[in-house]
Specification:
The structure holds two protein chains of two kinds.
Chain A: E1 6-7, H1 10-40, H2 46-58, H3 63-79, H4 82-102, H5 107-119, H6 125-138, H7 143-156, H8 160-173, H9 178-191, H10 203-218, H11 223-233, E2 242-248, E3 253-258, E4 267-269, E5 282-286, E6 299-305, E7 310-316, E8 322-326, H12 343-359, H13 364-377, H14 383-396, H15 401-423, E9 427-429, E10 449-451, E11 472-474, E12 494-496, E13 519-521, H16 533-540, H17 547-551
Parallel strand pairs in A: 9-10, 10-11, 11-12, 12-13
Antiparallel strand pairs in A: 2-3, 2-8, 3-5, 4-6, 6-7
Helix pairs in contact in A: 1-2, 2-3, 2-4, 4-5, 5-7, 6-7, 8-9, 9-11, 10-11, 12-13, 13-14, 14-15
Chain B: E1 12-15, H1 19-30, E2 35-39, E3 50-51, H2 53-64, E4 85-89, E5 98-105, H3 112-119, H4 121-130, H5 138-151, H6 153-159, H7 171-180, H8 182-187, H9 201-214, H10 216-224, H11 239-243, H12 253-258, E6 265-266, E7 272-273, H13 277-285, E8 293-295, E9 298-303, E10 306-309, H14 314-319, H15 325-337, H16 343-347, H17 353-359, H18 364-374, H19 383-396, E11 405-408, H20 414-425, E12 429-432, E13 436-442, E14 447-453, E15 458-460, E16 463-467, E17 484-492, E18 506-510, E19 520-525, E20 537-544, H21 549-560, E21 575-584, E22 600-603, H22 613-626, E23 642-643, H23 653-664, H24 674-681, H25 683-698, H26 700-706
Parallel strand pairs in B: 1-2, 1-16, 2-12, 9-18, 16-22
Antiparallel strand pairs in B: 3-6, 4-13, 5-21, 7-11, 8-11, 9-10, 13-14, 14-15, 17-20, 17-21, 18-19, 19-20
Helix pairs in contact in B: 1-20, 1-22, 2-5, 4-5, 5-9, 17-19, 20-23
The chains are: A alpha/beta, B alpha+beta.
InterPro entries (chain A): Leu-rich_rpt (IPR001611), LRR_dom_sf (IPR032675), Prenyl_trans_a (IPR002088), RabGGT_asu_insert-dom_sf (IPR036254), RabGGT_asu_insert-domain (IPR009087)
Protein name (chain A): Geranylgeranyl transferase type-2 subunit alpha
Catalytic activity (chain A): geranylgeranyl diphosphate + L-cysteinyl-[protein] = S-geranylgeranyl-L-cysteinyl-[protein] + diphosphate
């Protein structure tokens, strides 16, 4: 008697739902067809707006309909008053809001919103900002919204410091957010223009360090903060400049090295200038025969880089065969990714990272950052620790062990270059260091003797051709398969490639371009197994004298 | 009267509308049992109730006036007995579990501006008209207070707005305790209330008012000069005026009364663990649709004389200013690692959690946070227990916000009412101010076959569920002494820790000031929880009783707030009004072994725990005893899936269902503030909350990982 509640059965519910769905579909299809036919007929009326609205509100990802809608609105712009338009566009915005509720990551809706906002006669940016805030509070990684927000900020001219506070807020609620950190890294240079990037060690910078430290101490496995930290510690890319000019009397050649790969279209050599031959890092310029060949003459060369309004002088004195002018790599700045001006800051950062590492000995981000900091502070002094950290890194993050090996190779090469510079020699020796890759070859322009034995190298890359002074190459006991870098090396005389993986005659082809090659050791390479190899080699490289010996095990 | 007769047959008769009883009622009705749910009070939720300010005042009257037997004539209904039956009378006295009720008012009687208004004839008229009030009716309650404000205005002015204290205590209780404990007597040297015993309630109210204004308590204490009472620093004539000149104008007592309906003051202070049994049950059963919730926004702790925020979520740890980066790491690492069991902890089995924490070398800061605020343990809690509660806390984090807790808007008293509503929707019948006189037991089977209600109607039933308070003491099994909780309710004018937002809901853990003392739990509610008027905060303090509530809690109040007893508490929020009382700890109440038929089940009242596990567990156990085969609170169907019989309503479920239930029972006994609740709450928010819950449910796995990443959605 008290009305026991009766509940519909599942079948009943299903049936009802099915009917509901069918009904919906029918309406949807009818409206869609109506829209399409109207568009075909070129009708741009309010009814079409109505129809598209109806469809888009249930399916906001229907791009064709958004296009049609824009066509209609553009048409209305030509026939309606401004006040009326304002109303139409405002209605459009609130309609879009409902679409975004339906799908907050709809490309169509966000794009249309941007389009409408830009055309609105009297835009209400505050409202747009608050809409973005709402969306971001629901999903702080909604990149559509970030994009749109950037547009709104740009159009409405929100002050930078206010935007910085905005990122403060987002990072506070969830610091695992690349968008916010990245936004910060674009705002800070704007806020402190006097120190382009990174900001100099002012209050702001110290505050940033504190903030980011809080983040990575709280969760050292969250990489967003570490990336920001690296940006913060980092420094501007090296300026494009001429880092070395080398003149060789014998080859009648000038070689110009740049600090960064450049695309040089116009530079001039005082006295003589000639054809232009492009390389990424170095510029080799053969001078017309006879220009500097007379050993009793003194020559002053100036390389002008007109694009950058810079030049570099180099004097070739009487009686000398070669001459150069260069920046020393001992200027550590050259190799550090991090800035050195703030050594004290870096030192304290290293301390806190070490502190974290004590707590989290296996955290890869922390280890990597420590390595970078150590390199910025004292690459040679910390070499042992660096190698140990790399070893740990390869173990804890085995998926990226090859990356760490390459990075470690790079650092080892840098250290060797530094040592070479300190010793003021032209011999570069880095054997048995597990090198997997070669880099900084531009720094080896003047090297005459290079020893890469007992490493894990697989190839001598094209950049190897920058070693214009190279006479002796030792590369025994590697895994070299490819010699493409041994190309046009004018002074190369001896090449030792014992126990490598050279298997085809074609692999030796580049050596043909080295005019002075006399000695080649190929023992322990697969190529020695091939029949007739001796005669074929003799044919390929007639100038190599002790070829026979090189093939005997 | 015949038309008002109840049906003569039910499956389950339930006495008391506390949480456990209400859940049993909803669960039984949901699976098709015919439920009769009664409460002898005029309001829902019994000891779990929430009151408006004025409602609370009348509750106070009731509990200070001495629990007099309800003026119920003694009927002899033995004629209703059938063959082979005997009668078990239930307790008809309201052996309320409350004692030591004391009230203090530290704010001025009325606003200076308002005085004219208060003096105006209308104000007096109203109070006069309502003077004849009855029972616990909230409107009537305004009367005593207002009348005394009017009468005593003159004196007030003379005193220059000096603070007064109200004191009241349950005379009976007090006498009992005096016998038991000498210490207690010392603690209450001034008991002007003792003499109230033989006065009528109405008279009493006025006396109460007068007594308050004459400040007998402070005088008495002064003369005794007793040490332990912080009250000895009472307002001296010289000191008082300066103290009572706050920069901000204080909210007057008159304003509290005027805005009384904005308060929803809980007798019990609990929070809902967001993955606790109550929240799970609310979601599972769809009862959540009847209520709205708010996140507790902060976990705080009291340390070295300061209130500090306890960082517990990832975002908190990140933002914390008190922790060094190393501490941040250690804390995060501990919180992450302790979710999984380790070998290490087994080594600490049986040893205190504190030792385990010490072994982790976390440092004092973190140790304090983890022990007192996160595990909410004491120094000798065993490791297993400490870790279990730490884990529970952590699992609850991030489900709805940055703390593990939710609080229902309009107070905890809403929750039992939500379950009652569900019961009513499924045909349960409700009567307030209606009880059961006796149980009729078949001698051979020792089963209760029927009950006789307070009107003498015989109602047959298969099961009876009673709240502990309905059972005569003689039938209780206990030789065990009952434990008590000490409670305090404060209305303050500011938060214990001010922050950017003034709408914070905070849980503050206050460790024992000396070893072995009780640790105090403090919940501070802001006006947006719909439990207090704008400009005020409602603060609940709870601890296990060592002695009386006043003795246990007033030192904490004095330390953390500005009261006439406190010194140098500039910058602390002022207490405008406060109430102390003790209540029985439900977890100490034995629910088995009563001298009762086998189909009569006893529910204990509210326990002292922070969560609701105790009551929900009890309800589920009782339900399974009644209906071992049925599911406990299966999801309620959607309103549109319910088919209504021709004659009954066609409108959707909710309100309509409720009304039906109410009408057939006694509609006038609406629960405190319920109507308002639904009116103002706004349906939208309600829906959102619900959706949130469902959504969260689905994403369970994902949420675990992202816990603290998500703020309130």
């Amino acid at each position: 008697q008290h009305g026991r509640v009766k509940i519909k059965s599942t079948a009943q519910q299903e049936e009802e739902k099915r009917k509901e769905r069918e009904k919906k579909l029918k309406i949807y299809v009818a409206a869609r067809d109506a829209c399409f036919s109207k568009r075909r007929e070129g009708v741009w009326d309010d009814e079409a707006l109505q129809l598209t609205q109806q469809l888009l509100s249930s399916n906001p990802d229907f791009a064709t309909l958004w296009n049609y809608r824009r066509e209609i609105l553009l048409h209305l712009e030509t026939v309606r008053e401004e006040d009326e338009l304002q109303k139409i566009y405002e209605a459009e915005l609130s309609f879009l809001e409902s679409c975004l509720k339906m799908n907050p990551k709809s490309y169509g809706s966000w794009h249309h919103r941007g389009w409408v906002s830009a055309r609105l006669p009297r835009p209400d940016w505050a409202r747009e900002l608050s809409l973005c805030d709402r969306c971001l509070s629901l999903d702080d990684r909604n990149f559509h919204c970030w994009d749109y927000r950037r547009m709104v900020v740009k159009m409405s001219g929100v002050p930078v410091d206010q935007e910085l506070q905005f990122t403060d807020r987002l990072i506070g609620s969830n610091f695992s957010n690349y968008s916010s950190w990245h936004y910060r890294s674009t705002l800070l240079p704007l806020l402190h223009p006097e120190s382009p990037e990174p900001p100099s060690p002012c209050q702001q910078l110290l505050k940033e360090y504190e903030l980011v430290q809080n983040a990575f101490f709280t969760d050292p496995n969250d990489q967003s903060a570490w990336f920001y930290y690296r940006w913060l510690l980092g420094r501007a890319e090296r300026e494009e400049m001429i880092s070395c000019v080398y003149v060789s009397r014998e080859e009648e050649r000038v070689v110009v090295a740049f600090s960064r790969p450049v695309n040089v279209s116009a530079f001039t050599l005082i006295h003589i200038w000639n054809f232009v031959h492009f390389l990424t890092w170095t510029q080799i310029c053969d001078l017309p025969p006879g220009t500097i060949s007379d050993i009793t003459n003194e020559h002053n060369l100036t390389v002008h880089w007109t694009e950058k309004h810079t030049h570099r002088d180099c004097a070739l004195y009487t009686g000398r065969n070669e001459s150069w002018c260069r920046d020393s790599a001992t200027d550590q700045e050259l190799f550090s990714e991090l800035s050195v001006e703030k050594t004290s800051v870096l030192q304290s950062e290293l301390q806190s990272c070490n502190q974290l590492q004590e707590l989290e000995p296996l955290n890869k981000w922390c280890l990597l950052t420590i390595i970078l900091l150590m390199r910025a502070l004292d690459p040679l002094g910390y070499e042992k620790e660096t190698l140990a950290h790399f070893q740990t890194l390869k173990e804890v993050d085995s998926m990226r062990s090859a990356y760490y090996s390459d990075l470690c190779s790079k650092f080892m090469i840098e250290n060797t270059i530094l040592k070479m510079e300190y010793a003021e020699v032209r011999v570069f020796s880095i054997s048995d260091k597990k090198l997997t890759t070669l880099c900084h070859l531009d720094q080896l322009l003047l090297v005459t003797h290079i020893n890469l034995s007992s490493n894990l190298l697989q190839r001598l890359p094209p950049q190897f051709a920058m070693l214009q002074c190279l006479e002796v190459l030792e590369a025994d006991n590697n895994c070299i398969e490819n010699l493409e870098g041994l190309y046009h090396l004018p002074k190369l005389e001896e090449v030792y490639l014992k126990n490598n993986k050279i298997s085809k005659l074609a692999d030796l082809q580049p050596l043909v371009s080295c005019p002075k090659l006399k000695h080649l050791d190929l023992r322990g390479n697969p190529i020695t197994e091939t029949t007739n190899i001796q005669s074929e080699l003799a044919e390929l490289l007639p100038s190599v004298t002790d070829l026979l010996k090189s093939l005997i095990h | 009267m015949a038309s008002e007769d109840l049906p003569s047959e039910f499956d389950v008769v339930i006495l008391g509308t506390g949480l456990a009883e209400s859940v049993v009622a909803a669960a039984c009705a949901r699976v098709g049992q015919r439920v009769l749910h009664l409460d002898r009070k005029s309001y829902y939720a019994g000891s779990w109730a929430s009151f408006t300010f004025n409602g609370l005042l009348s509750w106070i009257q009731e509990h200070t006036a001495g629990s007099q037997p309800e003026t119920e004539e003694l009927h002899d209904w033995s004629n209703l007995l059938e063959d082979g039956e005997e009668m078990i009378c239930l307790s008809n006295t309201n052996s309320a579990p409350f004692s030591n009720v004391q009230v203090y008012c530290y704010t001025s009687e009325k606003d200076e501006e308002e005085e004219d208004e208060a003096r105006s004839p209308e104000a007096l008229n109203t109070t006069e008209e309502e003077g004849g009030r009855g029972g616990g009716d909230e409107d009537g309650v305004t009367e005593p207070a207002e009348s005394h404000t009017a009468e005593l205005k003159e004196e007030e002015e003379e005193e220059g707005g000096e603070r007064r204290q109200e004191g009241a205590a349950d005379a009976q209780e007090e006498e009992r305790e005096e016998e038991q404990e000498e210490e207690q007597v010392e603690a209450f040297p001034s008991r002007p209330q003792v003499s109230w015993g033989d006065r009528g309630p109405h008279q009493l109210q006025k006396t109460c008012g007068l007594n308050i204004l004459h400040c007998p308590i402070t005088q008495a204490i002064q003369t005794e000069g007793e040490g332990p009472e912080p009250e000895s620093g009472q307002p001296r004539p010289s000191a008082a005026p300066s103290q009572s000149e706050p920069v901000k104008k204080k909210i007057s007592y008159a304003q509290l009364l005027k805005e009384g309906r904005r308060f929803n003051i809980d007798l019990v202070s609990k929070l809902m663990y967001s993955r606790g049994s109550l929240v799970d049950l609310l979601i599972k059963s769809n009862v959540s649709r009847y209520a709205e919730f708010k996140n507790v926004t902060r976990i705080l702790t009291y340390r070295h004389g300061n209130v500090e925020q306890v960082p517990c979520s990832r975002a908190d740890v990140f933002a914390s200013r008190q922790l060094s980066v190393v501490e941040k790491r250690k804390l995060m690492r501990f919180l992450t690692s302790c979710l999984e069991e380790t070998q290490e902890e087994q080594a600490f089995a049986g040893r205190p959690y504190l030792e385990f924490l010490r072994d982790q070398q976390l440092g004092d800061n973190l140790q304090h946070f983890l022990l007192h605020s996160i595990a909410m343990a004491t120094e000798d809690t065993p490791t297993e227990e400490g870790l279990a509660s730490t884990r529970h806390f952590l699992r609850c984090l991030g489900r709805y916000g940055n703390t593990p807790f939710l609080f229902p808007l309009y107070g905890l008293g809403e929750i039992p009412q939500c379950f009652c509503r569900m019961c009513a929707v499924f045909g349960g019948i409700y009567c307030l101010r209606h009880s059961v006189h006796s149980l009729l037991v078949h001698k051979d089977t020792n089963r209760c076959k029927a009950v006789i209600d307070s009107r003498g109607q015989r109602i047959s039933c298969s099961h009876v569920v009673v709240e502990d308070g309905y059972v005569e003491a003689a039938r209780k099994p206990t030789a065990t002494p009952t434990r008590f909780l000490s409670r305090a309710v404060l209305i303050t004018d500011g938060s214990v820790l001010s922050s950017e937002s003034d709408q914070q809901v905070s849980l503050v853990t206050v460790p024992p000031s000396e070893a072995g003392g009780p640790s105090v739990r403090l919940v501070e509610l802001c006006p947006s929880t719909m439990t207090c008027m704008p400009g005020t905060y409602l603060v609940h303090l709870t601890c296990q009783s060592v002695s009386s509530a006043y003795q246990d809690l007033s030192p904490v109040v004095t330390r953390m707030f500005r009261t006439p007893e406190s010194h140098d508490q500039e910058g602390r929020p002022s207490v405008l009004w406060c109430l102390y009382f003790n209540m029985a700890d439900g977890s100490a109440v034995e629910v088995e072994g009563h001298d009762l038929p086998s189909n009569v089940y006893v529910c204990s009242g509210p326990d002292g725990g922070l969560g609701h596990q105790h009551a929900i567990g009890q309800a589920e156990a009782i339900f399974h005893k009644i209906l071992p085969e049925d599911e406990f609170c299966p999801p309620a169907p959607n309103p549109e899936d319910i088919i209504y019989d021709g004659e009954t309503c066609t409108s959707p479920l909710g309100e309509e269902g409720e009304e039906r239930g109410e009408e057939e029972g006694e509609g006038e006994g609406e629960g405190a503030g319920e109507e308002e609740g639904e009116g103002e709450g706004g349906e939208k928010e309600e829906k959102e909350q619900e959706e949130e819950e469902e959504e969260e449910e689905e994403r369970d796995g994902e949420v675990q990982e992202k816990q603290s990443l998500k703020s309130e959605e």
